[in-house]
């Protein structure tokens, strides 16, 4: 039988181990897709900081260079949370156990939807959407929703295709929404297909002046780029993360895809079925 001193030592050791286990916070990695030249982590710093405080989790950020890498990061277990574009999310849900849970609403807007814009310089001879036939078209990156998928859908409506060499003088992927727009401003491209959110964010930070450009076409509303987490995260932790994101605006200024956000709303996987149908339609064209 242990004497009292040994009992005290044993009790202290058990207490010490217990305290350290409780004190060690859970750590999650969050991955970003390349939508902006400005650095997407900066848009999320305040949101992440608030979520960390509310959940007592530690969230580390990872930036990748292409959309496939963002999906692969979650599939391989290197990322637990992600900011995906809509099309990229569909792939992540299919092969990486991703689950959409929230999307940001910009100040003054009623919902989280956005658009694909086709943009030309103010002095361009292109006056209407159909005038882009035979011109140089710049897009974001293969796999981008508003900088690749939706532009292709809008082009199909006027019987144009990025893969038909007779339809365009050249089609190239600039690497980001910002680079796509700059290609137009620097006369490397006649027209750019890009996200309305990035257009508005670059206008707000004076990257360009509205007098320099014209929007010649605006798509139908696009489902918002979601925050998604891996289903491998325990359900109670997922609920905690989602609750914190949805309440974050009550605790300070927050940002997200395209800059400042007023708040985040709940989204679910089925909200992206419309994009799944679009992808299938384009495959069959």
Describe the model.
The radius of gyration is 23 Å and the shape is globular. Helix 3 packs parallel to helix 4. The model is unreliable at 8-23 (pLDDT under 50). The protein has two domains: 24-111 and 223-274, D-Maltodextrin-Binding Protein, domain 2 (3-Layer(aba) Sandwich); 116-218, D-Maltodextrin-Binding Protein, domain 2, CATH 3.40.190.10. Strand 1, helix 2 and strand 2 form a beta-alpha-beta unit. The protein is 38% helix and 22% strand. By secondary structure, it is α/β, with parallel strands linked by helices.
Can you tell me the CATH architecture of the largest domain? 3-Layer(aba) Sandwich
Order of strands, widest sheet: 2-1-3-10-4-13
Query: Which CATH C-level class of the largest domain is it?
Result: Alpha Beta
| Largest sheet, strands/sense/barrel | 6 strands, mixed
Q: What integer value in Å does the Rg equal?
A: 23 Å
Could you estimate the helical fraction of the residues in percent? 25-40%
Q: In total, how many domains does the architecture comprise?
A: 2
Oligomer: single chain
Low-confidence stretches: 8-23
User: What is the global morphology?
Assistant: globular
CATH T-level topology of the largest domain: D-Maltodextrin-Binding Protein, domain 2
Mean pLDDT: 88
Helical element count? 9
Q: Would you identify the CATH H-level superfamily of the largest domain?
A: Periplasmic binding protein-like II
Give the N-to-C terminal Cα separation.
81 Å
Order of helices and strands: HEHEHEHEEEHEHEHEEHEEEH
How many strand elements?
A: 13
